[in-house]
Amino acid sequence: MTLTLDLDLSAVVAEQPDPLLFATVSGAHLYGFPSRDSDVDLRGAHLLPAEALIGLREPEETRSRMWDRDGVEMDLVTHDLRKFARLMLRRNGYVLEQLTSPLVAHTTETHAELVSLVPGVLTRHHAHHYRGFAGTQWRLFQSSGELKPLLYTYRALLTGIHLMRSAEVQAHLPTLVGEVPEAPARLPGLVAAKADAEHGHAEVAVEDVRAETEALHAVLDEAQAASRLPEAADGAHDALHDLVVRARAASR
After folding, report:
1. 203-206, long-range: CB < 8 A, 24+ apart
2. Strand ranges across the sheet with 62-69
3. What is the dihedral sign for C-alpha 162, 132, 207, 148?
4. Half-sphere exposure of 174 toward its Cβ, with a 13 Å CA cutoff?
5. Residue 35 backbone dihedrals phi, psi, to 5 degrees
6. 158-173 tens-digit pLDDT
7. Which helix or strand (DSSP H or E) is residue 30 part of?
8. Which of 46, 57, 43 is nearest to 16 (CA)?
9. Which is nearest to 111 in space by CA: 77, 85, 76?
10. Measured in whole angstroms, how far is the alpha carbon of residue 146 from the centre of its chain?
């Protein structure tokens, strides 16, 4: 499902030195627990001309721009299509979440074709991405006591479990609560609490949430072992290569 956002990126798109292929909302808004003071994380891909890739100068494969919109910080980060395609092949769940985000601010036919190739890049090894991301966020929670990294921990584990079971990239925590039976009952309350402040403290017993996250790690291990996803993304490399070549040629 594609949602219409109240985000006018026309001026930003016009200012880009090269075509913007897509921009979607990531971060807390995509995950379903934004705060009133959350910034808006926009992620996407741009298309460099062939000349930028065949000369001696290093191409600007990644670009970022930040600006303020009515007091809200906006952050746009895009990769050249070739780099984005390579990231898709590296079992990187983060870029797949950006690509399939239903919060679409700017899109093109190339964006739609990239989305259509997502099933072909999914493997059971994407579980490692979510396992590692959850571990990083848990350590941040331990050091800060903030609710945000705790929710990120739960979200990463539930996304990984759901992906292993359904072969679907689902990053929205409230949806995952309904899709994953093992989701802790406390999560809707934590999401509601997060709405009040981006860096609010987590009013939880650390040992209780530690037990819950450790249990979810075990569930993720079991889901990975039982997953019908393949070991490798056979054929995805050629399909993405063809798309990059066609898009670059068409831009000339």
Report:
1. 204/150, 206/142
2. 3-4, 103-106, 20-26, 40-46, 72-80, 62-69
3. negative
4. 12
5. -100, 170
6. 999 999 999 999 999 9
7. helix 27-31
8. 46
9. 85
10. 21
Give how far the C-alpha of residue 225 lies from the chain's centroid of Cα atoms, to the nearest Å. Answer: 23
SS3 content of the chain, % helix, strand, coil (to 5): 55, 15, 30
Give the tokens for residue 172: 């929205």
Three-state secondary-structure class, residue 62:
strand
Bridge-partner residues for 155, per DSSP?
none
| Residue 105, token pair as written in the block | 């601010």
CA 84 to chain centre: 13
What pTM did the predictor assign?
Answer: 0.91
CA atoms of 201 and 171, how far apart (whole Å): 23
- The Cα 169–Cα 186 span in angstroms is 23
- pLDDT tens digits for range 63-109: 998 888 777 788 899 999 999 999 999 989 999 999 999 999 899 99
Provide the residue type at 17 as one letter.
P
Tokens of residue 249, six digits: 């040629």
Whether 79 contacts 99, CB under 8 Å: no
* 132's tokens: 């590692």
Q: Which two tokens stand for residue 125?
A: 């090894």
CA dihedral 153, 26, 194, 5 (to 10 degrees): -150
Contact between 105 and 74 under an 8 Å Cβ cutoff? The reply is: no
How far is 2 from 105, CA to CA, in rounded Å?
Answer: 10
